[in-house]
Amino acid sequence: MGGQHSQFTEEELKDYQELTYFTQKEILHCHKRFSQLDPDTVRTDKNAKLSSRKIMTLPELRVNPFKDRICRVFSSSKDGELTFEDFLDMMSVFSENAPKSVKVEYAFRIYDFNEDDYICEGDLKKVIQRLCGDQKLSNENVNALIQKIDIVKLLEIARQAKQLAMALLNTKGGKVSEGFLKERFFKAIVSSIKKEAEL
Ligand SMILES: [Ca+2]
User: Fold this and answer.
1) CA 67 to centroid of ligand 1, rounded, Å
2) Looking at residue 182, what is its pLDDT?
3) 86 CB contacts (<8 Å, ≥6 apart)?
4) DSSP 3-state assignment of 117?
5) What range(s) does the EF-hand domain occupy (predicted)?
6) How many angstroms separate the alpha carbon of residue 117 from the centre of ligand 1?
7) Where are the domains of the chain?
8) What is the pTM assigned to this prediction?
9) Which of 39, 50, 73, 126 has the fewest Cβ atoms within 10 angstroms?
């Protein structure tokens, strides 16, 4: 069915289908979008890596305050550059077919700025700063808002949420996944931030 198809074997398409929440048609559409970011490079090498600068021009990412973190989290080389497979992973996680638990896991990783698998005070500050930045507040206002937000209280809420999740984990015989624990933790943090920011 034309040029786009010939870049992948049936086998490759089947593999991609198994590894994502996409149909083969959607995978080909993703490849088309990946190619459009840098047609010349992708035409000569279908496994080419594209810079985060190019990836961030995608309409879905352009206005996202965490776009650099998103590129970083999905970059298999951890430098923010994305291969087509990385790009496909990213699009798949953001697609409506991806389960919420998967989305939460990635949200957690995006907010975990120092990548120590824990949302600490520094991470929270950065999240707030970026969310406020998106509302076009001046630096002064951002600082004022951060002053108003009780980080200690937020951390306490987060700790409680983690304890609650741990308790649930124990009562269910340790069968609850780490993803579930993170979801509770993450939800509590986000709702606290929202509440505190509505000042
Ligand atoms: Ca962290």
Assistant:
1) 17
2) 56
3) 74, 75, 76
4) coil
5) 68-97, 99-134
6) 6
7) 10-94, 103-197
8) 0.70
9) 39
Interval between CA 109 and ligand 1 midpoint (Å)? 9
Which of the four CATH numbers 1.10.238.10, 3.40.50.170, 3.30.420.40, 1.10.10.10 does domain 10-94 have?
Answer: 1.10.238.10
pLDDT tens for each residue of 157-183: 555 555 555 554 444 444 445 555 556
Query: 158 alpha carbon to ligand 1 midpoint, in Å?
Result: 13
Q: How far is the CA of 113 from the centre of ligand 1 (A)?
A: 6
Most confident of 44-48, 92-96, 106-110, 119-123: 92-96
Compute, in angstroms, the gap from residue 186 CA to the centroid of ligand 1: 12
| pLDDT over threshold 50, residue 1 | no
Task: Give the Å distance between the CA of 56 and the centre of ligand 1.
Answer: 23
DSSP letters, 15-29, are HHHHHSS--HHHHHH
Determine contact, residues 81/52, Cβ cutoff 8 Å.
Answer: yes
